[in-house]
Amino acid sequence: MSEKRTRNLPTSHSKGKGARVCRRCGTHRGLIRAYGLNICRRCFREVAPKIGFKKYV
């Protein structure tokens, strides 16, 4: 008789773009990971002056 074989699928992504999300809005697109920011480029433009980036004042 044929037995149905199952395999253990991962419950979460540990690697890749889907594993990292923006701290503010939760998107995975355009993520800035430098300096441990982990925010998307759109949110970065909004909060850059507050966190000390002078170029975006």
Structure characteristics:
30s Ribosomal Protein S14, Chain N, 2 strands, 1 helix, 12% helix, 57 residues, little secondary structure
> Whole-number average pLDDT?
88
Structural class: little secondary structure
Q: Give the helix proportion (percent range).
A: 10-25%
Going by CATH, the homologous superfamily of the domain at 21-56 would be Ribosomal Protein S14/S29
| Shape verdict | rod-shaped
Indicate the CATH topology of the domain at 21-56: 30s Ribosomal Protein S14, Chain N
The stretches of 5 or more residues where confidence is low (pLDDT under 50) are none
CATH architecture of the domain at 21-56: Irregular
Instruction: Spell the H/E element sequence.
Output: EEH
Q: What is the tally of helical segments? A: 1
Q: Assembly type of the shown chains? A: single chain
Number of strands: 2
Distance between the termini: 71 Å
Topology:
Elements: E1 31-32, E2 39-40, H1 41-47
Antiparallel strand pairs: 1-2
Overview of the molecule:
The chain is mostly loops and 57 residues long. It has a domain at 21-56: Ribosomal Protein S14/S29 (30s Ribosomal Protein S14, Chain N). The protein contains one helix and two strands. The chain has a two-stranded antiparallel sheet. The longest helix has 7 residues, at 41-47. The chain is rod-shaped, with a radius of gyration of 19 Å. The relative contact order is 0.14.
